[in-house]
Write a sequence for this structure.
């Protein structure tokens, strides 16, 4: 079975639309519904390896999902093998009011050229991010699960979400092409640097047909048909059950116990 066949089988897509843009959007949505964004392995002391075959094994064989360097990297590989012109960029996380110039490049974003228009893809950001590919058009609202926009800042763009009548910045990126050596450095920082939030906080998301499910430390939130509910996780068994059922991530009992112990002293956060 080829890589593309394995990937499409995992996404449970038996066929793809002929139109390149319709196909891209179908793949983006299916990816986020089937493959969970998460940093579980980072928290368990297993830094991600970016070798393409290792990432494919982790995601498509072992079903563990991953974070941006894994999932957006794997998605870029799929799109290229399907014939798309794909560019890989590195952005800066700016949640909480961080300043562009003071942040490292720790987020991978993709762009795809179709008929002269650049479309942004990001299957591994988290809540309030893209839930579909979107055209890169400045200051034009993008209506998805949240209202988003790209706002020019310096040589790049701020990805922003509309909240409480104002625009909140999620991350910044530019259109500079990057390569494996760049991704390895950013991944190493994100998964090993002591101050990296990925080493201290559980951040996870999976889209559903009705909305999304997120995990922020020991809190699970579900957005379903516009209504939000929360579940506070109080035991390792509950964490084990919820992650397996809602993230579709095969977490075993031992790892659930270790993860719960790691998170028990951490407050709930709003990074995803």
């Amino acid at each position: 079975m080829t890589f593309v066949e394995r990937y499409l089988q995992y996404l449970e897509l038996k066929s793809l639309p002929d139109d390149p843009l319709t196909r891209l959007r179908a793949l983006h949505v299916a990816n986020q519904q089937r493959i969970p964004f998460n940093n579980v392995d980072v928290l368990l002391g297993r830094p991600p390896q970016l070798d393409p075959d290792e990432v494919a094994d982790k995601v498509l064989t072992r079903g563990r999902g991953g974070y941006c360097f894994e999932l957006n990297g794997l998605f870029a590989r799929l799109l290229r093998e399907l014939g798309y012109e794909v560019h890989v960029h590195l952005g800066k996380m700016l949640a909480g009011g961080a300043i562009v110039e003071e942040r490292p490049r720790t987020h991978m974003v993709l762009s795809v050229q179709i008929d002269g228009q650049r479309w942004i893809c990001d299957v591994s950001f988290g809540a309030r991010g893209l839930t579909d590919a979107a055209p890169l058009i400045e200051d034009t609202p993008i209506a998805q699960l949240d209202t988003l926009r790209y706002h020019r800042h310096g040589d790049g763009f701020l990805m922003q979400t509309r909240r409480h009548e104002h625009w909140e910045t999620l991350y910044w990126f530019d259109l500079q092409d990057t390569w494996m050596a760049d991704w390895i450095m950013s991944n190493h920082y994100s998964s090993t640097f002591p101050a990296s939030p990925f080493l201290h906080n559980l951040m996870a998301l999976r889209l559903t047909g009705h909305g999304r499910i997120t995990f922020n430390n020991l809190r699970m939130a579900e957005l379903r048909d516009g209504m939000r509910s929360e579940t506070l996780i109080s035991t390792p068994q509950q964490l084990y059950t919820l992650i397996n059922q809602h993230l579709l991530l095969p977490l075993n009992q031992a790892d659930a116990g270790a993860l719960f112990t790691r998170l028990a002293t951490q407050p709930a956060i709003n990074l995803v």
In short: The longest helix spans residues 20-34. The chain has two domains: 3-173, 196-263. Residues 89 and 177 are 6 Å apart (CA to CA). The helical segments are 3-10, 20-34, 40-43, 52-61, 68-81, 180-192, 236-247, 253-263.
